[in-house]
Amino acid sequence: MLEFRRLLEELRVSFFAQERRTPQPVSIRRLEKAWGQLNH
Predict the structure, then answer these.
(1) Which of 17, 26, 30, 36 gives 10 a disulfide partner, CB atoms 3.0 to 4.6 angstroms apart?
(2) Are 29 and 11 in contact (CB under 8 A)?
(3) Phi and psi of 25, rounded to 5°?
(4) Residue percentage of the chain with pLDDT more than 70
(5) What's the domain count of the chain?
(6) Which domain holds residue 27?
(7) How far apart are CA 24 and CA 11, in angstroms?
(8) Which residue, among 17, 8, 9, 12, has the nearest Cα to 35 in the 3D structure?
């Protein structure tokens, strides 16, 4: 769950503070994949 939260925060940064850059590219697809892994 912590990994999902971290990815979500990085996605927010990529949307609202684009000049900050995230250490790892994050996309909605990557979040969906992480969420799917939590549910299994």
Answers:
(1) 26
(2) no
(3) -60, 135
(4) 100
(5) 1
(6) 2-38
(7) 10
(8) 8
pTM above 0.85, yes or no: no
What's the confidence (pLDDT) of residue 40? 72
Grade residue 24 by pLDDT with cuts at 50, 70 and 90: confident
Structure tokens at 16: 């609202």
- How sure is the predictor about 18, in pLDDT bands with cuts at 50, 70 and 90? confident
- What the block records as the tokens of 38 is 């939590």
Q: What is the dihedral of CA 26, 30, 32, 36, to 10 degrees?
A: -130
